[in-house]
């Protein structure tokens, strides 16, 4: 089967299929197409004008469905000479007539995915691709290549450290020798650097000479968060995977991406850089095209008119209980299995079923009064196979039925699709989203978790915390408890979604907020029952420093050990004594500075910052060294002297610092220790007094 597609010229596509000996090449003629519909007018004018365009090969009249609840209608099928012209022509057409009179479909599909869905090509490879990894240190704007570490699929490693031209030729030779199907690069910048390093015979990293830049770098904002998309490149006949730009490679593995390739029909290279929403959209597009529903270029689903009261009720998320701050013994955690996806499937929530025109009298969504059409929606048809397959994969993992790495990769990849499918319904640019779906799902989720809480309490269990789809319960005093298995089964039958027993805890601690005693909704940690006290894997933690990506490795390790000390002794004095040992290790200079690196995401360009922060100092140093840092990228640095101003405060990890500011990191350690001790009322001032040996801790405060 085809595993990657190249487009060497305007009317040709090259399919590469994996074989036992390497790859086979097949050249085919290909002309992409898009569609034009009119809401109130004639297609004749568009047909005559677009048909005369020099880059249009053919215009035909065909019948297709413009939406899920629409019958097939006449449209223009516009076949063009090449992929690049589609956006230009679609923009021109939509500007004709009155606003919205002409609408275009199947416009902004990615090239390889478009080819697959238009030609019916399955991009899932016939065998597992072989992979070669190319790692390089950060590349400066003027410094060029310094070294490349090459790891073949066989496990052999080669460190190349000659001049740039020699490095490039050695990389080429290794690729030709091992003939990998996938090139995994630490940064896509490496590709042009390798090609630019040679000035005689052209370099060949693909199965044919040359390379192509598919996209330039860009910065974007998503849900208030700044992200960076690096430039993307292609080499003929091989898949390029940029490890710095692959969410699914980080969160799953190559096997997980291959599972998504099979489900979405996005070829491996496109699937590797795709976002969660991009993959989910591709799966939805396949379902739509199978039903002859075309893909709108832009969403045309305005929010329905709502009263102020309905808006206030609808504009809410899932339910979160205020946690009972403190340390609790004998706690059990139960989670609803894929709650939001299962709500969509069991309640038939889909963009064309919620607030349908055919059942305006129905009020299926409690509190909102929205109707839900009983006719099956397309979204449950998309999600149910994902839910069922992940359940089966998890069963196979538990029973050790198959390759664990393959199964866990697939499970993780599907998990992220299911996690995001709910939020995607509220995304303004979603191809098939609708805000009313988002609101209805939240309404059902609130109802379900409140019903579950009431049922637990009826059976003698007290809920100490709950977050959207998870509940933590402990036995009520002086009450007889029904077995949790029976309670979970009753709740599952009532709400039609399985409530699963997740874990038992010897103890669990719910943290207060930093500046008052109210419970922090998502900051907690606890020791799982029956697991060793001295192993980090025995402790679940959420929201505290050990789970924050910016936390240095040394501080993370220290917090885990402080947690273990608390698990052994339940003594603030014992935890502070262990903390003193970490502080002494800092004071004596015994900590490797690389273990103190802070990783933060850049939100603006360095010149746009108005405050002089450590992040800004790191960006200024990076600029001095010729290391470009764009908004959305990470910067890694060690604080070497926090009392100084500007660049001197920090050293980049890339600079291999040999010293650090012990006082700064002492403060970070004490902050981490406070997270461990605060559930018992032991705050930062108490920790400082304990460290000064002025006050003895008392176990009674716990």
Give a short overview.
The protein has 702 residues and is α+β, with helices and mostly antiparallel strands. 35% of the residues lie in helices and 22% in strands. Among the domains are: 156 residues, B family DNA polymerase, palm domain (Palm domain of DNA polymerase, Alpha-Beta Complex); 111 residues, no CATH class; 67 residues, Ribonuclease H-like motif, CATH 3.40.1820.20.
List the helices and strands and how they pair.
Elements: E1 2-9, E2 12-19, E3 22-29, E4 33-38, H1 44-51, E5 56-64, E6 73-80, H2 85-94, E7 102-105, H3 111-119, E8 131-135, E9 148-151, E10 157-160, H4 164-178, E11 182-185, H5 190-196, E12 212-215, E13 218-222, E14 225-229, E15 232-234, E16 239-242, H6 247-251, H7 254-264, H8 268-273, H9 276-290, H10 308-314, E17 326-336, H11 339-346, H12 378-398, H13 404-424, H14 435-458, E18 461-467, E19 470-475, H15 484-495, E20 499-512, E21 519-528, E22 539-542, H16 553-569, H17 572-587, E23 598-601, H18 614-624, E24 634-639, E25 650-652, H19 662-677, H20 684-691
Parallel strand pairs: 8-11, 11-16
Antiparallel strand pairs: 1-2, 2-3, 4-6, 4-7, 5-6, 8-9, 9-10, 12-15, 13-14, 17-19, 17-20, 18-19, 20-21, 21-22, 23-24, 24-25
Low-confidence stretches: 694-702
Largest sheet: 6 strands, antiparallel
Mean pLDDT across all residues, rounded? 91
- The CATH topology of one domain turns out to be Palm domain of DNA polymerase
What's the total count of β strands?
A: 25
State the helical fraction: 25-40%
Roughly how many Å is the radius of gyration?
Answer: 29 Å
- Strand percentage lies at 15-25%
**CATH top level of one domain?**
Alpha Beta
CA-CA gap between termini: 62 Å
- Please report the number of helical segments: 20
Estimated structural class: alpha+beta
CATH homologous superfamily descriptor of one domain: B family DNA polymerase, palm domain
CATH A-level architecture of one domain: Alpha-Beta Complex
Report the principal-axis shape. globular
The strands making up the biggest β-sheet line up spatially as 18-19-17-20-21-22
């Amino acid at each position: 089967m085809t595993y990657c597609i190249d487009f060497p010229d305007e009317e040709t596509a090259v399919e590469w299929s994996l074989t036992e000996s390497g790859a086979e090449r097949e050249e085919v003629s290909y002309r992409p197409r898009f569609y034009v519909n009119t809401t109130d007018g004639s297609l004749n004018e568009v047909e005559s004008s677009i048909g005369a365009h020099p880059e249009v090969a053919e215009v035909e009249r065909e019948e297709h469905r413009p939406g899920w609840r629409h019958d097939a209608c006449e449209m223009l099928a516009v076949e063009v000479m090449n992929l690049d012209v589609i956006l230009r022509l679609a923009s021109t057409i939509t500007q004709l007539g009155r606003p919205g009179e002409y609408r275009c479909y199947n416009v902004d599909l990615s090239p390889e995915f478009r080819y697959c869905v238009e030609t019916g090509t399955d991009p899932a490879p016939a065998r597992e691709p072989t992979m070669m990894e190319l790692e390089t240190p950060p590349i400066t704007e003027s410094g060029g290549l310094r070294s490349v570490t090459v790891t073949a699929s066989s496990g052999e490693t080669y460190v190349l450290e000659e001049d740039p031209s020699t490095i490039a030729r050695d990389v080429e030779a290794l690729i030709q020798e091992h003939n990998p199907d996938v090139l995994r690069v630490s940064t896509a910048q490496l590709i042009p650097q390798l090609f630019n390093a040679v000035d005689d015979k052209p370099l060949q990293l693909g199965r044919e000479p040359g390379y192509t830049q598919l996209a330039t770098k860009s910065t974007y904002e998503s849900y208030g968060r700044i992200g960076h998309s690096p430039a993307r490149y292609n080499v003929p006949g091989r898949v390029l995977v940029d490890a710095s730009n692959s969410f699914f490679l980080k969160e799953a593995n190559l096997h997980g991406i291959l599972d998504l390739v099979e489900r979405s029909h996005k070829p491996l290279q496109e699937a590797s850089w795709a976002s969660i929403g991009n993959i989910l959209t591709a799966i939805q597009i396949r379902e739509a095209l199978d039903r002859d529903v075309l893909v709108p270029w832009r969403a045309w689903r305005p929010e329905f008119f709502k009263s102020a009261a309905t808006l206030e009720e609808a504009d809410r998320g899932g339910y979160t209980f205020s946690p009972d701050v403190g340390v609790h013994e004998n706690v059990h955690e139960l989670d609803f299995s894929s709650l939001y996806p299962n709500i969509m499937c069991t309640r038939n929530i889909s963009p064309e079923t919620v607030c349908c025109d055919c059942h305006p009298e129905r009020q299926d969504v409690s509190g909102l009064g929205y109707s839900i059409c009983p006719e099956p929606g397309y979204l449950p048809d998309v999600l149910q196979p994902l839910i069922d397959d992940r359940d089966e994969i998890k069963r196979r993992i538990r029973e050790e039925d198959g390759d664990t790495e393959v199964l866990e990769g697939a499970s993780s990849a599907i998990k992220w699709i299911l996690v995001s499918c709910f939020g995607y319904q509220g995304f303004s640019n979603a191809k098939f989203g609708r805000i009313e779906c988002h609101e209805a799902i939240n309404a059902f989720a609130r109802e379900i978790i409140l019903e579950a809480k009431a049922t637990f309490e009826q059976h003698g269990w007290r809920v100490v915390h709950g977050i959207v789809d998870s509940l933590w319960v402990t036995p009520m005093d002086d009450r007889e408890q029904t077995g949790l298995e029976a309670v979970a089964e009753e709740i599952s039958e009532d709400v039609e979604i399985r409530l699963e027993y997740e874990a038992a805890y010897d103890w669990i601690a719910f943290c207060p907020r930093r500046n008052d005693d109210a419970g922090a909704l998502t900051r907690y940690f606890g020791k799982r029952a029956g697991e060793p006290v001295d192993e980090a894997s025995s402790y679940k933690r959420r929201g505290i420093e050990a789970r924050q990506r910016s936390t240095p490795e040394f501080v993370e390790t220290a917090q885990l050990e402080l947690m273990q000390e608390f698990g052994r002794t339940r003594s603030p004095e014992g935890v502070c004594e262990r903390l003193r040992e970490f502080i002494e290790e800092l004071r004596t200079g015994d900590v490797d500075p690389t273990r103190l690196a802070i990783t933060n995401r850049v939100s603006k360009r360095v010149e746009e910052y108005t405050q002089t922060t450590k992040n800004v100092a790191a960006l200024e140093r990076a600029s001095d060294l010729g290391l470009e840092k764009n908004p959305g990228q990470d910067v890694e640095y060690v604080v070497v002297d926090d009392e100084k101003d500007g660049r001197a405060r920090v050293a980049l990890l890339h600079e291999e610092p040999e010293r650090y500011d012990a006082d700064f990191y002492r403060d970070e350690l004490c902050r981490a220790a406070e997270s461990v001790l605060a559930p018992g009322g032991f705050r930062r001032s108490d920790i400082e007094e304990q460290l000064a040996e002025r006050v003895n801790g008392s176990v009674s405060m716990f």
